[in-house]
Amino acid sequence: MKTSRPWLLRSKVSGALLVTVLLTGCATFSNDGGFGSVEKTTKDRIGKDVKWARSSDDQNSIDQRVAELLKKPLTVDDAVQIALLNNKGLQASFYELGISESDLVQAGRLPNPRFSMLRARHDDEYKIEQAFTFNVFSLITMPLAQQVEERRFAQTQRQITAEVLRLASETRKAYYTALAGQQTSMYMGQVKDAAESGAELAKRMAQVGNWSKLAQAKEQGFYADAVVQVSRAQQAQVSSREQLTRLMGLWGTQTEYKLPERLPDLPKAADELPDIESLAMEQRLDLQAARLETEGLAKNLGLTKATRFINVLELGPARVLEGQRSDPYKKGYEIGFELPIFDWGTAKVTKAESIYMQAVNRAAETAINARSEVRESYHTYRSNFDVAKHYRDEIVPLKKRISDENMLRYNGMLLSVFDLLADARSQIMSVNGYIEALRDFWLAKADLDMALIGKPTSRSVPASMSSAASENAGGH
Prior knowledge:
This protein is α+β, with helices and mostly antiparallel strands. It has 12 helices and 4 strands.
């Protein structure tokens, strides 16, 4: 009896320690799944709401909000808000939070204990071994592993937030492109109408002998080209609108949403951002994510070194019976661990160090690229502002003055109707050029805003319609 008391005491202490660790080390899921950070950052950065539809009630709330926004002509802010609530790809990315938090919770939970038993019999002789063991080494590595997963979870939150902001930026650009496509299509229709009037008038004058066949053919050729350009403008309008529709996640009758008739006006002055690089270094989420990744890998390297020689160490009480079935059990404990005979862990450590240094250099590349991207975005923004302003203040007013003067000369029988039609085409083309310049400015503004908070998306500008029209107008 005396020999069993120390073992019994150790068992009670071990059991109490195990229960304490289980009670204190059991990690749980958060109430919001880590989504609160995404919501707050989105609200702070762009002033928009974002919702994770994890239940039918959440989805019904989103559907009602989208329906309300679609009742009136969409503003750019309305379009962005719809995309952030209704885009299914974005909703799918939110579940990355659930995956990452599951890894975090799992890292904070101790592994289950293990029970093993051996039973052998020869006639009346028995050998029975029973052991109840627990991975003691996990108590050492669990805090480090939990820190690694905490950093990965925070990194996932920032990546999801960056995805939200990227979608907002793409929706803004798609909105301006769709609106410009609609406006361009309308103006190219005016070019077609002017060309049709000129072709019909030339035909009638040629029939009475007041116009040459060559001049008539030129007018007819201009009209034929104008018809083609209208078709291209209408196709560009459809494509740009469908792109906006996809980003907003709309289908069915929702696709009948209304857009305003024209692009927003150019602001009075361009934004002055002298400290734009330092501002980007402070705000960009991709840089924050890169730093978190590097820190997490550094922690992971420490964990790898900690488990270099022993990565399994199990300890627990055991009892053994040898002899008759009625004989008493021999009580003790069992320890199990791996012996570093063939693998000393150098490959794991070298791999972890290489991954860490790879992340360090990628983080440095991200910072260098961020500085370049924000400088380029700001230069494009200022350049497009200057071009649009020149169109607004110089080219369009000048074309209008010329048109007014030509109208006076036409009324005074000093200008032919065909000269007047050619002038009308020129004025319409200048307005169409201003539409394109205004579109490019708002696209550049969206890229600049994105470059200050994350990696900007590549910009694809539709082909210019005014340049094609100007080629058609040449010689008329």
